[in-house]
Amino acid sequence: MQRKFQGLTLIALALKIVGAISLLIAFVSLIMLPLIFAENDSIFANLGFYAITPGSGLIGGVVAGVLIFIVEGVLGTVVLAIGGVVDVLISIEQNTRAALLLNHNHDNE
């Protein structure tokens, strides 16, 4: 049987890749942002906060890392799930078509 819906299959694959990249960004941001912000507090000084407590960069990095981890994690999981749903719908259609053809051939005999 020929495989149909090549476009939808490509879209499902693209969604899975984008979801996986989003999950990777979530995990990397959880590790990297606290390290980047902890280097010094000049990030807050550039924003106009000069009387900032030392070590606030680390706290800001942890907060930013956790927030990005949660948001990207949820978005990545949803996009990955949508790609899986598209694959399931394609499989359902193919199985339904095969059952219909099998039933049609059986009736003609």
Mean pLDDT: 84
Tell me how many strands there are: 0
The biggest sheet, with number of strands, parallel, antiparallel or mixed sense and barrel status, is: none
Spatial separation of the terminal alpha carbons: 20 Å
The portion of residues forming beta strands comes to: under 5%
Protein structure class: mainly alpha
List keywords for this structure.
mainly alpha, 83% helix, rod-shaped
Describe what this molecule looks like in 3D.
- The protein has 109 residues and is mostly helical.
- It has one domain.
- 83% of the residues lie in helices and 0% in strands.
- The chain has 3 helices and no strands.
- It is rod-shaped and about 85 Å long.
- The model has no long low-confidence stretch (mean pLDDT 84).
Compact summary:
This protein has 109 residues and is mainly α.
Give the SSE layout.
Elements lengths: L5 H33 L3 H5 L9 H53 L1
